[in-house]
Design a protein that fits this description.
alpha/beta; five-stranded mixed β-sheet; globular; 334 residues
């Protein structure tokens, strides 16, 4: 009589099959892919309308706004350094350059990706004290007002990468950070570093072959957010041991979602928690590449996210939905 399995047993066998394929068939991790244009960053206090300002306009703007904000920006150099370290890490792993704009030329002639940090109270101060004194035009015909663009930074998100599938104020392919939610202490803590690395990886996803067409649009967040949450959390945990407020979320190391439910979940409460799946695959991949000769169990293990370089080089095929996502994952891990 043919063997029959419960739904949960079937899910477990599917996952085991995926992991066996990883151990035997994926290529070795890339040791650095094509060089990125730069791994430097420029963090600007302001909305993404500042994306196309030249150094002269930007200098005029900063001369006006920084005295208004006072010590709120004591950590900007630290943010730029952290983003650069994350970028170097992703580049060495072999990931493609991020889809991130604008790429600007600094005073010393070097290149940097410009990203933005804003806060609702800063806009209020600007409108009260300096908006009338800015020596150049702050509005662009046909686009929303400065306030409506800035308010995108004052909502519930701690940060976001606005890629091909999202736009705000007529702009795409930029990153903003919301100082209402993060980056609001004199020094940065673990969660601040994790947000930086997480959003930068979204830009890396968008710059990959997988992200270079319609794949991300309509794709489940169990892939987009779960993947970014796993790799960023593990990188930060190793890179910034001992930083103030170093309190990584232990649940992320072991996973707190049920895999009795479908892997390709559409349940919002599970999408970030699916990071445990991507981390577990990285543990198996580390063991396979290192020829560790041992099984990966429930205890925390070292990880190798090199398999994501290969996976993000594969485009999705077919109509959007969980079937397409699981087929992409199955074929990409072979």
């Amino acid at each position: 009589e043919p063997m029959r399995y419960t739904y949960r047993q079937g899910q477990a066998l599917l996952l085991l099959g995926l992991l066996v394929m990883i151990a035997g068939l994926l290529p070795l991790p890339a040791q650095g892919g094509e060089p990125w244009p730069t791994t430097q960053f420029q963090v600007i206090p302001g909305p993404p309308i500042a994306r196309d300002w030249g150094e002269g306009e930007l200098a005029d703007y900063l001369d006006l706004v920084l005295p208004v904000f006072g010590d709120d920006f004591a950590f900007i150099d630290e943010m730029e350094d952290a983003l650069s370290r994350a970028a170097q890490h992703y580049q060495v792993m072999g990931f493609s350059e991020p889809l991130l704009e604008p790429l600007v030329t600094l005073e010393d002639g070097s290149l940097a990706y410009r990203v933005f940090i804003c806060k609702q109270s800063w806009l209020d101060k600007l409108e009260d004290k300096v908006m009338g004194n800015l020596p150049f035009q702050l509005s662009i015909p046909g686009l929303p007002t400065l306030r409506s663009i800035w308010e995108r930074c004052g909502n519930e998100n701690a940060a976001a990468h606005m890629g091909r599938c999202g736009t705000e104020g007529g702009f795409r392919n930029y990153i903003y950070f919301n100082s209402e939610r993060r980056f609001n202490n004199p020094t940065m803590g673990f969660w601040d570093y994790e947000v930086l690395a997480h959003e930068l990886f979204h830009a890396v996803q968008a710059g990959s072959a997988w992200g270079d067409h319609s794949s991300p649009c309509g794709t489940g967040s169990w892939i987009i957010e779960g993947m970014a949450d796993a790799i960023a959390s593990d990188f930060v945990r190793e890179e910034w041991k001992g930083v103030p407020n170093f309190k990584p979320n232990r649940s992320k190391e072991y996973g707190i979602r049920s895999y009795a439910d479908t892997l390709a979940t559409r349940d919002d409460k599970y999408v970030y928690q699916t990071s445990s799946f991507w981390r577990h695959v990285a543990e198996w991949y580390y063991a396979a590449v290192a020829n560790a000769g041992r099984r990966v169990g429930s205890a925390k293990s070292k990880t190798n996210y090199g398999y994501l370089v290969h996976l993000l080089n594969q485009r999705m095929k077919g109509l959007a939905g969980s079937k397409r996502e699981l087929q992409w994952l199955d074929e990409g891990l072979r």
